[in-house]
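Hi there, hope your week has been kind to you so far. Would you mind checking whether the tokens look sensible for this chain? I owe you a coffee for this, so here goes:
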Amino acid sequence: MNIAKIKRRKRFMVILFCFIAISISVFLILNASRDSLIYFYSPSEVKNINEIEGKTFRLGGLVVEESFEYIVNTKAQFMVTDGVNSLIVIYEGVLPDLFREGQGVICEGKLDPNGNFIAERILAKHDENYMPPEVADKLKKTGQWKERN
């Protein structure tokens, strides 16, 4: 065999090995990150999605006026709306200082078999400037959007 052919074959094998290694790495990274993604939905989207029960996701919208109540000690219940649909949220723990009725909120958790959202984490925002565009558009269409000066 010719030395040039041997060098070419070695170079080809190295390139092939690198391509296979990079392909396997990319596949493993994408496969692992797929399970750790947390999607954001509005109450209307949650009602329209099948098979979401038991999956962790974020629910965003406005806390409905006069819907907040304590069930026991640190367990609270309130409703979140996007102006069209509402969902009951149940949360056990200390609520953020900025949490209040009529304000934007993002809740992270799962839907229970009764259709209630069991929140593991509550993220309160100080105004609607941080509202995701989809939720803000729905609130504007229903007239519940509050413009800030």
Observations:
- The longest helix spans residues 3-36.
- The chain has two domains: 1-37, 39-142.
